[in-house]
């Protein structure tokens, strides 16, 4: 077991090196990626600013809490893009071109390979900046106290949320095995992920329940925010762990089924 | 002239292959609306259902009016957006595939405009059906008069043309820079918010709205939607249409100039 | 038996659609399928250390056969066993021991030096550092690409890229190597180098090679045994030279006379043999035994300035063969 973990970690480091080596060739991309991030995050921020002209709080989240929530949305995003995000929608391309073949012929878990192949180096910079902002704002929110235990559970929760984000996009992307011209999987996924980019408190009761279970969008950013802002909640935390395990398991099943259906593009 | 029609036709056939995408488009509209519905329900509840002030409307808007406005904004926003065509154009310019257009008696601008319409036509048809369905279920909320339908169509056409021109200008930067794709992506993201697709621009803080009114942005989404919902009285139409039309001319001229310069650059360096 | 293919059949579903708007609308609601039989009842046994060529025209089913053999496709019928393993179970032990190089596809990353991709393979195959260095150096030296290894792949020529692909594919010293159209698009020198390499590597490491190609020269220079596919069926499995002799037993003789032969002599020869004669040069394309007879008669009556035998171009032979294979195969 330890040997396997070690091996896959080394392999991931090789992916990191490879990607870094390639990205260093295109230095301008760093700037562009940050530029896009600023615009995207900026527009979301703007959205809430407009809304707060008309209201003081959205459920549990007042204006300050919403800002912290948004920063966690961005951090969750960056984390996801760093480890997994750039790869998930490559599945469609690789299925269409038949490049998936090369991955399947390697003595490595193909799901791991295709999910971690390209490391999102650029997002490290955003992550760094956002972390600093986060700490500052949360410190202020908690009346100048640093509740380390909140950060710890928030961090774990972010990683779990990232895995749920991954599972979700992976399942949608894997539909490429069944629907050949499904080039807009990214669009569909983007529309669904929107639900995670609003605090869970805006949703009505019955829908909110689905966001914490079968459509676990609240698990990606809302739960980490709650753990950070309002303190540790055992029930919520355990629920998140359970949902993460279930969804990851579903991805392995779908991947296996998808491969069975895979017919490589003719030469 | 017929050659342009055949371009449209072939792209229309092509778009039929991608039928799943239209379903996603529909889903995007309804899902986006659903989220907005949740947020604004909460806001109106917190304010005891009092009307929200909206620029250009005396007394503000109630919940139903706002949701209808947002619904139309989302649809119009989607119709005018062009990711596929612009991506393709950028690739063509960067990889030197543009040659095939230069040696044919065809205008690059109009070729891609037809392509744009062709690709989007399936969406346009389906969204029109959605609008008709809406009118059937909730009569009287939009298109109070026949003339508002005509006004809507006219302003929508101008909006589509304006939007295309803006994409075209951005795409032309590919003649000089490599990573224009990022620029277009950033534009799309910014436009989602600024054009009023998710929050009507009339709700923006006044200072921001003032700045936006100096750009063609209000004519992309707000103008057609305001006509459809009857916010702009017919008497005000003429000068709005005039401004919209002026923007069309300005952007067309700009497109032409930038394209010409770009082609010179392209020919100078080959690709 | 190292690779065993038994009763293998594979068919694909193809979409059918006519041109025109009406047809487009129809297909929007309902899609029309047609079955295409890529392979029918293929039987093939490959021994360890063999170099076997799979020959056939485009669309004959060569690449499909390769993909089935490595588990990238599932057959509709039949079984495949490689070293006792079932390929589509994707056992890692098997995968660590095979390698596939596809002439038209790149495994290496475009924007970074090949050496980086090699390093990645080292980790994927979990290779020991010493072993990796040794193997890498051997291959780099053989192909003489030491100064190209640190150049971005996109800056290499097609021939150099192919060499890098092969190196990447062999770093883990697989026992079975499948090459799908390896010389496609390469210049003559690179093609020759690759063929030379295959022979060398097979000798050195007793590796099994399965090579598909539609270039007859590839097969001629690398493979003793050939497996011929035609429209999804196997029509020949055996020695390549025998096949050629079977199809076209003819050779060409060119005889240059020292002195002018008499017309009567030439005419008498024409009764028995078919040939061209012009200005002291006689050229005849005949089966070898007939040529020997002709030659002995010529030498008995005249001296020659120059005699040469030519093999007929194998490509022409194969082209004739594919146009009507049943003519040659019982």
Quickly list its features.
heterotrimer; A: mainly alpha; 12 helices; C: 330 residues; alpha/beta; Rossmann fold; Alpha-Beta Plaits; 6-stranded mixed β-sheet; 38% helix
Distance between the termini of chain A: 39 Å
Q: What is the end-to-end distance of chain C?
A: 26 Å
Work out the largest interface and the residue count of each chain: A-B, 39 and 35 residues
CATH topology of the largest domain in chain C: Rossmann fold
Give the helix proportion of chain C (percent range).
Answer: 25-40%
Query: How is the largest sheet of chain A built, in terms of strand order?
Result: 1-2
**Strand ordering within the main sheet of chain C:** 5-6-7-3-8-9
Figure out the total of helices of chain C.
12
What's the number of helices of chain A? 12
CATH class of the largest domain in chain C: Alpha Beta
The overall strand count of chain C is 13
Rounded radius of gyration of chain C (Å)? 25 Å
Using DSSP, what is the number of strands of chain A? Answer: 2
- Judging from the principal axes of the Cα atoms, what is the shape of chain C? globular
Total number of domains of chain A: 1
Task: Compute the average pLDDT of chain A.
Answer: 88
Q: Which structural category do the helix and sheet elements of chain C fall into?
A: alpha/beta
Radius of gyration of chain A, in Å, reads 19 Å
Could you please describe the fold and organization of this structure?
The complex is a heterotrimer of chains A (267), B (271) and C (330). Chain A has one domain. Helices cover 72% and strands 1% of the residues of chain A. Chain A has twelve helices and two strands. In chain A, helix 2 runs antiparallel to helix 3 and helix 3 crosses helix 8 (148-174). Chain A is globular. With 271 residues, chain B is mainly α. In chain B, a hairpin with a 2-residue loop joins strand 1 and strand 2. The mean pLDDT of chain B is 84. By secondary structure, chain C is of the alpha/beta class. Chain C has two domains: 51-75 and 87-245, Rossmann fold (3-Layer(aba) Sandwich); 249-311, ACT-like. Chain A, domain 2 (Alpha-Beta Plaits, 2-Layer Sandwich). In chain C, 38% of the residues lie in helices and 29% in strands. Chain C has helices at residues 21-29, 62-69, 92-95, 114-124, 129-143, 158-170, 188-205, 216-222, 240-247, 263-272, 288-301, 314-323; strands at residues 3-16, 32-46, 51-55, 77-82, 98-102, 176-180, 208-213, 225-230, 233-239, 250-257, 276-278, 281-287, 304-311. In chain C, a hairpin with a 2-residue loop joins strand 8 and strand 9. Chain C starts with a strand and ends in a 7-residue tail after the last helix. The mean pLDDT of chain C is 86.
